[in-house]
Each structure stands twice: as C-alpha cells, then as structure tokens.
Amino acid sequence: MAELVFFSGTMDCGKSTLALQMDHNHRARGRGGVRFSRNDRAGESRISSRLGLETDAVEVVDGTDFWEEVILRRTQGQRVDYLICDEAQFYTPEQVEQLAKVVDEIDVDVFAFGITADFRTRLFPGSRRLVELADRVQVLQVEALCWCGRRATHNARTVDGVMVTEGAQVVVGDVDMAGESAAVEPLVPVVGYETLCRRHYMRRVTAHGAALMGQQDPLLPFEVDACLWRGSGGTGA
Asked: How far is CA 217 from CA 113, 199, 211, 229, in A?
C-alpha cells in the first residue's frame, strides 16, 4: 500500500540529500517518479544538497495542484509510482491534502521532506498538516549541531549576526554565514540562518554573538546569559 511519509528535521540534517538518494533508489528499481521542490537554495526548479548534489525538479507554487499534476502525467502515458516533495514546509495545507488524496485514491507513494518549525519555533502550516495527515513522521537521524557542539534543535534567523524572533515566516537568507554576517558593516541588513541548541536559542546566543563575547571579555563564564551581550537585543542592550 502507498504511504505519505514526512521526513522532518532542522536545517543541515540531510533532508535534501536523503530526498535525492531515495529518488535514485526508486528509479534504480524501475519505478517512475516526479521530483517537486519550492524555494530551493539553488534556485527555481531545483533540488540541491549542501553536499553538492543537485538535480532538476518541478517548482511548486501556490497554484500547484498535485492531483492534477499526477493525473496529467498518467494520461500522457508517463509512469508515476511516487513523488519526492522537498521543502514541503512551504507547501500550503491544501496541497498537503492533495498529496494525501494522491496516496489514498491512486496508490502513489509520497515522500515529503521539510523543516517542522520556523525561526520563531512555530510550525509551518504545511508541516503542521503533514504531521496531522502523514502515515509516518520520521525525524532524521543525522544530527545538526549548534556552534557549542550540542545537538541543534532549533532554526534561528539572524540579521547582521543578531538573532531575531519577529518578522515574516519566509525570508530568503544565507545559511553559510553563521558568525560572519556582521564582520563588516553591510549597506543593507544581512539575513542569515543557523541551527542552535535549545539553550542558546532561548538565550539568543548565535555563533557570531558567542565570538564577540569571547573577544570582549575572555574572563566571562562560558554560559553567559545573552541579555548581558549588548548586541542580543535583550534587556542589557
């Protein structure tokens, strides 16, 4: 029987890598599938991994109807046994329901990959619906790490190296500039993302903030409260 499976985790835990690997494995066994993605870091109509793997995909937009996408291909004689749905947190709840319908009504496997919660620790609408409807929800076993070395459990958004907890849910940013985004004075604010453990997420201590605190006063205890750092935006600012 076909399944709707949601593979979830933080950034840097290998979701897109697994999506590409699963697509390869199924195609190698003669199954036909379609790859979908939305807002991939490599640009439109791509699935890319930070390991350097990359392939083409169908770009999902608000008007995408997965039921129609599958029916159209099947009526044209294309074999569709499964769907790879990367960046599924950006899908609408209605699109997730379409994926469930594809599984139940025409026996197509759907493998969805995405982040569960945003930078405010709130569930993405698409991820919430996937958790509600999926036959299985699997948390990826590859652990992303916080700058301190602990297991990262939260995705943080930074602006010029300072963690923020307000703003639009979806904003394109750089995931490779943790600790570097405020190294020079930018002409416009630089938005970045990094993964943090719960302790440092709650204290708002990013990699850049920890580096600044270490430079300013090496005698401070390692686990200093972020509110003592002038750039944290806390009560000590």
From this structure: 42, 21, 10, 11
For 86-115, how does the pLDDT look when each residue is reduced to its tens digit (9 = 90+)? 999 999 999 999 999 999 999 999 999 999
Strands 162-164 and 154-159: antiparallel
Residue of 3, 54, 69, 87 marked catalytic: 87
- pTM (2 decimals)? 0.72
DSSP-derived secondary structure letter, 123: B
Whether 87 is catalytic = yes
* 70 contact partners, CB below 8 Å, separation of at least 6: 34, 80, 83, 102, 106, 108
Give the Å distances, CA to CA, from 22 to 27, 32, 51, 169, 188.
9, 12, 16, 29, 40
Q: Which residue has the tokens 């920890």?
A: 210
